[in-house]
Write a structure and sequence with these properties.
Elements: H1 2-27, H2 32-48, H3 78-119, H4 124-128, H5 130-138, H6 140-146
């Protein structure tokens, strides 16, 4: 793909050079005012052409042994790659630990609530009875004891 684009650009350059040669051959016979207008148009076209990007080369540090530290992937062995992944692994381990601890805490809460309901003097159906709720709200002594 790149070679095709390079060939196309080479053809365009060759065509432009051939056209410029033919125009220059006949330019000596043109009147002065036309040659001045052509010169002004040429200057305008040159000023509007695309500039080639300037490539900046990153400086590289070279040690006494001749090793450079300029690139990011240079000199990454197995241990340095593991060390770069290690924070991610620790984060995943921490999140998994938090999830497990929260699940255990919820399970303990539910188990203690179930134990209280089952060991209470009242049957569990009494808590769902709407009349029992009205009874608790109307009796201030029982309401303070429930808190």
């Amino acid at each position: 793909m790149k070679t095709q684009a390079k060939l196309d650009m080479t053809r365009v350059d060759q065509l432009g050079q051939a056209l410029a040669r033919r125009l220059n051959e006949h330019a000596t016979h043109l009147p002065h005012d036309i040659s001045e207008r052509l010169r002004a148009a040429r200057m305008q076209a040159i000023s509007q052409r695309k500039r080639e990007p300037i490539r900046v080369i990153a400086p590289q540090m070279v040690t006494a042994g001749g090793h450079s530290f300029g690139g990011f992937d240079e000199g990454l062995n197995l241990w340095s790659r593991i060390a770069s992944i290690l924070p991610f692994i620790v984060l995943l381990f921490g999140l998994a630990s938090i999830h497990i601890l929260q699940n255990e805490y919820r399970t303990d809460e539910i188990a203690s609530l179930d134990a209280e309901l089952l060991t209470d003097d009242l049957p569990p159906d009494a808590y769902t009875d709407p009349g029992f709720l009205i009874f608790l709200k109307s009796n201030p002594i029982l309401e303070k004891a429930a808190d």
